[in-house]
Amino acid sequence: MENNLIIFGSVTLAMKSRNLLLKNNIKSGLVRTPIHLNRKSCGYSLYVPGNFERALEIIRSNGIAVKGTAAVDTL
Amino acid sequence: MIYFDNGATTFPKPLSVRKAINEAMSDYGANPGRSGHKMSVKSSEIMYSCRDNAAKLFGSENPENIIFTLNCTTALNTVIKGILKQGDHAVISSLEHNAVVRPLETLKKNKIEYSVAECVPYDDEQTIENFRKQFKSNTKLVICTHASNVFGIKLPIERIGALCRLNGILFCVDAAQSAGTADINLSDSCIDFLCTAGHKGLYGPMGTGLLIINSETTPDSLIQGGTGSDSANLNQPEILPDKYESGTPNLPGIAGLNAGIKFVLNKKTDRIYNSELGLARMLYKRLEKAENVILYTKMPEKSHSVPVISFNIKNTESETVAKILNDSYNIAVRAGLHCAPLAHKSFGTQDTGTVRAVVSTFTTKNDVVYFANAVSRISKNNKQKKTI
User: Which end of chain B lies in a sparser environment, N or C, as judged by fewer CB atoms within 10 Å?
Assistant: First the structure.
């Protein structure tokens, strides 16, 4: 299964990234990060069902810190 | 009441602000950034929207660098106490509020010193030179008000910032009295930290303020605690804004502030400024003609003023004038020292204080006429009493 989740350190960065992706016509959804993916820490992620690599590139090229990526089948 | 105490807090607040606060209290109001349910996410969306709008208003590229604080004082304390360490030196202007002076006095016990640069009203060259003269090899931070909360004098912050940048000194601006009224654009400035109240020219409710970080150097956090992020880590996160926002935030207040900032964005700062300056000039002209009224500044003008007017009536205490305005004319003003003893010392009013009149976007020409007539009558009546 391919990656579809981008994990962030804060809800603010997740929302900033979601808005940035939307400007680039990539849809994503804000979700709580599943606890097993986040070293038992709280946090928020973006679920990106399509254009994942492009989305990651846009976020990183805008200087937004990404904590990790993952593949999930249910949220 | 006829409200001229907008320097303390603006009143009334726009309807949109009151509506936004009410919605936060009655419609969604869950704890933001803590949960994944719809109400919590809605709360987080409102917080983010406020950061985004504040970033637009002040020309910040990064909404995450907009930090919510309780007020401008908390923002200033965060910068002052989070940047200065033992052996450091700071420079402030002679027009600073106690929100700047008192934290620095408190830090003296930690062997942190500060010097005061004399602001010379209407002479930017001399003011800048006075700042330069105070710099030492250990000067780390300059804190400067954008505009005096007592006399409305604007300082040349762009040039003071450039001087700081050239000397490798961090620059913090107190925009409590100017944000929303005077234009501030961080994208083309040398301001590292911008502190402001949310409840004055931004038309939000009391209990809101902003610290905007425009520097790679960030202050230590004043308080530490739960942020809703990185919870297994026992250390305070370094990520912005979480580093400075421990504990449950003032969501209804921030919702109101968001509506207030949108109100300012829609009206546009330059239009607000021109309209308020026009009213301040109208008031100044009338007070200038009134008998026995002492004014302390020149006529407010674009390059050097925000719409704040301080005055006194000869032989009448400022607090007495404020009481008569309240009791007999239903007019609200503030009198006394306005928490800025250095500014009063500069203008020779440390023993008398001043009566301060500040307009807002809701002030009308009729309000100004009524106010000036009231002051004129008080002045005449007091003169007659003295004569008797």
Answer: C
What pLDDT is attached to residue B229?
87
Task: Measure the CA–CA gap between A5 and A48, rounded to whole angstroms.
Answer: 6
The single-letter code of the amino acid at B376 is: S
**What mean pLDDT is reported for chain B?**
96
Residue B386 has pLDDT above 70, yes or no: no
Please name the member of A12, A30, A31 whose beta carbon is closest to the beta carbon of B63. Answer: A12
Q: What is the pTM of this model?
A: 0.95
The answer to whether A65 faces chain B, any CB pair under 8 Å, is yes
Cβ proximity of B359 and B371 under 8 Å: no
User: pLDDT digits over B59-106, tens only?
Assistant: 999 999 999 999 999 999 999 999 999 999 999 999 999 999 999 999
What's at A70, amino acid-wise? A
Structure tokens of B65? 């660098």
How far is CA B281 from its chain centroid? 21
pLDDT of residue B221: 98
CA distance B229 to chain A (A): 5
pLDDT exceeds cutoff 70 at B385: no
A62 touches chain B (CB under 8 A): no
CA distance B193 to A49: 39
Please confirm whether the linkage preceding B12 is cis (ω < 30° from 0).
yes
Residues sharing a CB contact under 8 Å with residue B81, sequence separation 6 or more, in sequence order: B103, B107, B219, B220, B222
Determine the pLDDT at residue A37: 80
Q: Between A and B, how many residue pairs show a Cβ–Cβ distance under 8 A?
A: 60
Q: What angle do CA B206, B208, B211 make, to 5 degrees?
A: 145
CB contact under 8 A, B48 and A15: yes
